[in-house]
Design a protein that fits this description.
- The protein is α/β, with parallel strands linked by helices.
- It is built from eleven helices and nine strands.
- It has a single domain, classed as TIM Barrel (Alpha-Beta Barrel).
- Helix content is 39%, strand content 12%.
- Strand 8, helix 8 and strand 9 form a beta-alpha-beta unit.
- Helix 6 runs parallel beside helix 7, helix 8 crosses helix 10 and helix 10 crosses helix 11.
- The chain is globular, with a radius of gyration of 18 Å.
- The mean pLDDT is 95.
Length: 326
């Protein structure tokens, strides 16, 4: 294996078992969600928990802050762990906390989860007025310090405006094309075009609600979708962001979707009768299965360089360009 393997979104129930599976799957780096609805202090507690894991399992994982940490992890047989938020809640309503969060190790922040935020509109809202005044100021500050704008759960206009307003490339770390699998969270052509034409990245998700045929999606269908997306937007803008939620109890779905904003259950994209996690497709159960995606991409006719780009090299280049101060 010559290229890097980088997964730009996971939210697993972390354990020594999963850290060992990362190593078995030769995963050099992962971007992990450490906040859904947490405020600043609660997010700091999540950084603390990870620091304890880095102490406990120094032969398996290490903290990732810069692209060079991916190289260091590869050289030492470990997985570099980069941190991100799926909501701007850790910055609360204080733009000064953005630099503090970056200093602590945050490298990605979604401007919204599924709902309207102080910054932009989430993909579940009926109306999308785009970036707010505060949203534009926050993007400028994120650009300055090297915190990547992530629009994975944001609505169309907000995402297009963010891609165009940001002076640095933005990311959709975990989603698929809407035309392949219509879902509120998947991205339409004009959205993907805005992100990629401004140098940004799209990470393909294997979360079943975002897949054609859901849990029954075939590896061939998934990899063919990636190949066709590469034809349209350029292979250099594509990577993997599995959205793997391994070993999480179904109760965690409630936290992800509901947080503290409602007293009612929000079923989101799942079935109202089964609000838990869907079964993963048979070809991707955990981190040991990245080789299946690599083989599947090769089977579409992609050459070795293109496959290596999607499996991690493109994310590595993006990290190098975007994690430091402007």
């Amino acid at each position: 294996m010559t290229g890097y393997r980088i997964d730009c979104l996971q939210y697993a129930n972390w354990s020594e078992k999963i850290f060992r599976q990362l190593r078995e799957g030769n995963v050099d780096a992962i971007h992990v969600t450490i906040a859904y609805h947490e405020n600043f202090r609660e997010t700091v507690l999540n950084f603390e928990q990870w620091n304890r894991w880095f102490e406990q399992y120094p032969d398996l994982i290490m903290k990732g802050q810069w692209a060079s940490d991916v190289e260091k992890a590869r050289e030492t047989g470990r997985t570099a762990v980069f941190f991100g938020f799926q909501n701007p809640s850790p910055m609360e309503d204080d733009i000064g906390l953005i630099e503090i969060l970056h200093t602590l190790g945050a490298r990605f922040m979604q401007l919204t989860y599924n709902n309207q935020s102080l910054l932009a509109t989430g993909c579940y809202e009926a109306e999308d007025p785009g970036l707010t005044r505060m949203g534009k100021q926050v993007i400028k500050e994120m650009n300055r310090v090297g915190l990547v704008v992530d629009m994975s759960h944001s609505a169309d206009r907000s995402t297009i405006e963010a891609a165009e307003f940001s002076t640095r490339p933005i990311a959709i770390t975990h989603a698929n094309p809407y035309e392949w699998s219509p879902a509120l969270r998947n991205k339409k052509e004009d959205v993907i075009r805005a992100v990629t034409s401004n140098g940004g990245m799209l990470g393909f998700s294997v979360y079943p609600h975002h897949l054609k045929d859901k849990s029954a999606c075939t590896l061939e269908s998934f990899c063919e979708m990636i190949a066709r997306t590469a034809d349209k937007y350029g292979v250099e803008h594509l990577g993997i962001g599995t959205d793997l939620c391994q070993d999480q109890p179904d109760s965690i779905v409630e936290w992800m979707r509901v947080g503290r904003w409602t007293k009612e259950i929000d079923y989101g994209e799942g079935s109202a009768s089964a609000p838990g996690f869907p079964d993963m497709p048979g070809w991707f159960k955990d981190n040991r299965d990245f080789g299946n995606i690599e083989d599947g991409l090769s089977a579409t006719g992609m050459n070795g360089d293109e496959v290596a780009g999607i499996m991690g090299r493109n994310w590595h280049r993006f990290f190098k360009d975007n994690f430091g101060a402007a």
